[in-house]
Design a protein that fits this description.
Keywords: Oxidoreductase. By secondary structure, the protein is mainly alpha-helical. Helix content is about 45%, strand content about 5%. A two-stranded parallel ribbon has the order 1-2. The C terminus is likely disordered.
């Protein structure tokens, strides 16, 4: 829940910053990127049933393109940006049933190990 909370906090803060910069006519653009799991040590052990784990190189290229095109929000993979819309439109129980259970999103961390160091057994 800490990871999810921090991601939503960044989305909210980025939206607020983007609006402030627009109102000030600063010419500075904000691109918020919300990727799914990326195949790095940070997400070691994560398993995803339907949504593919993202390749780091491809993800980096997509992020650079989003910034170059001044995209406001980029969910990765494609289509993931619709989750905010779907969550806002569906009742909680239906959203949980479809996205969490049917798509398996709520079980992806069951085998999570994360990046391990000699001093720590887990990043949880």
């Amino acid at each position: 829940s800490v990871y999810a909370a921090s991601k939503w906090a960044v989305i909210g803060w980025s939206d607020s910053l983007r609006i402030e910069l627009q109102e000030a006519r600063s010419g500075v653009h904000v691109t918020t990127v919300a990727p799914y799991y990326i195949a790095t040590g940070m997400f070691a052990g994560v398993r995803s049933r339907l949504v593919p784990i993202l390749d780091p190189e491809k993800t980096a290229r997509r992020i650079v393109r989003a910034v170059e095109h001044n995209r406001t929000f980029r969910g990765l993979p494609w289509g993931f940006h619709f989750i905010r819309l779907v969550q806002g439109l569906l009742p909680d129980k239906l959203f949980d049933a479809l996205v969490g259970n049917a798509m398996g999103i709520y079980r992806t961390m069951d085998h999570f190990t994360g990046r391990r160091t000699p001093d720590h057994t887990s990043n949880r």
